[in-house]
Specification:
Largest sheet: 3 strands, antiparallel
Number of helices: 14
Distance between the termini: 84 Å
Strand content: 5-15%
Radius of gyration: 29 Å
Shape: elongated
Number of strands: 8
Structural class: mainly alpha
Length: 390
């Protein structure tokens, strides 16, 4: 018998007997021209047609995989199962990270964890775990039975729109917090912005994309601060002190212009602080996270200002907000093997902290007490207290 005719007979028998093919223990999509001799036939339990149709509908709503078979056979069932599991596996890690960061964000923002965005993310996590745990007929039955209080659109967006949300978590609200420390009516505007931010955080991603809201809130908060600064300048009686190269009027460090602009070598996009890196390192290890928070609080309490000479907060910043605004930077990043210890940490203003993250040649040496950024012509002394490493 010609090989192609032999394959046709085998495939016909497999279809009649509800059998699928496996090769070396894994499902194999056999065809007339591709049926290895060491393929094995296995009897495949088939779900009810109603379950098959419902499973395809659920998959389409939550994962949106195109090109999956409509006709149910033992082979198409194996194909459906393999493709759905493969697709879901690619989303498992970011969705797990999303759930963890949203739960942490709820604590940071002082809100209860029962809100739409986190609920949808947890349902997405449950769905992906279900797909991972089943295959074949059992997977189809599980998909058909999947039900959730969160809308399909919210779960799907939590799965496929995860990266854009992770990009803004944890939410950097330092500028907003500064505006909340101002006097009315500017404070009233800041409180309205805070309410908008919290509302967007609570809504699911399908209803309100978080990243654009965070960007808009930060932009509007910055505009409020600029109005405060302009008002302070008008009210001030002494004339402004002359600004020297490398120093801002408020004492903060600014890189000198070179060739009409700032030549900054990009190292990484600035996310507002090292907190995102700490959360990535420790995940749900609350003991490790609290230890990090304790070290950060202690260092801020020791210095109550940036350790770098000339790196000062604006003089109009309320004293009560100073420790809250200052940031602690890991000299060698945790992602590159740096330790989460005082010996690898330094207290900076947000401005200089951002500069350390975007300049490739930025260097800090606590032993010599020097910070340098050669590309910007910056070199500053660092204050290191005797109890810094205790």
């Amino acid at each position: 018998i010609p090989p192609i005719l032999e394959n046709l007979i085998i495939l016909a028998c497999a279809a009649q007997l509800n059998c699928s093919f496996s090769l070396h223990g894994s499902p194999y999509q056999a065809s007339l021209k591709d049926l290895p001799g060491d393929c094995k036939l296995k009897t495949q339990e088939l779900p009810a047609q109603e379950e098959w149709d419902k499973a395809r509908t659920i998959q389409d709503a939550l994962l949106g995989l195109a090109g999956l078979p409509k006709l149910m056979t033992a082979q198409t069932l194996d194909h459906f199962s393999a493709k759905v599991r493969e697709e879901a596996a690619g989303y498992e890690r970011p969705v797990n990270q999303l759930v963890s960061l949203l739960a942490s964000e709820a604590g940071r923002q002082g809100i209860d964890e029962d809100f739409d965005r986190l609920n949808a993310a947890r349902e997405a996590q449950r769905f992906l775990a279900l797909v991972k745990s089943q295959q074949g007929c059992a997977l189809v039955k599980a998909l058909a039975a999947f039900a959730s209080d969160s809308p399909d659109e919210a779960i799907s967006t939590s799965i496929k729109g995860t990266e854009s949300v992770l990009h803004v978590l944890p939410i950097d609200r330092k500028t907003l917090d500064l505006t909340l420390g101002l006097e009315s009516p500017l404070k009233d505007e800041a409180q309205t912005l805070e309410a908008e931010l919290l509302a967007a955080l609570k809504w699911n991603e399908y209803v309100a994309a978080l990243a654009p809201v965070v960007e808009r809130i930060n932009s509007r908060a910055l505009a409020i601060l600029q109005r405060q600064i302009q008002g302070s300048k008008v009210a001030a009686t002494p004339g402004p002190e002359p600004v020297t190269s490398g120093q801002a009027a408020g004492g903060g460090i600014i890189p000198p212009a070179q060739g009409g602009g700032m030549a900054v070598a990009a190292k990484a996009s600035w996310a507002g602080s090292d907190e995102a890196e700490v959360l990535r390192k420790y995940g749900n290890d609350r003991a490790a996270l609290e230890r990090n928070r304790k070290i950060v609080r202690e260092l801020k309490s020791i210095y109550r200002t940036s350790q770098v000479a000339g790196d000062n907060l604006p003089t109009w910043v309320p004293e009560s907000l100073v420790e809250r605004i200052l940031e602690v930077h890991h000299i060698e990043s945790l992602g590159q093997g740096g330790v989460d210890e005082r010996s690898n940490m330094i207290v900076l203003t947000p401005t200089l902290h951002a500069l350390m993250h975007v300049c490739e040649d930025a260097r800090i040496d606590l032993k010599t007490g020097l910070l340098s950024i050669p590309s910007q012509g910056i070199e500053r002394k660092i204050a290191v207290h005797a109890d810094h490493n205790e």
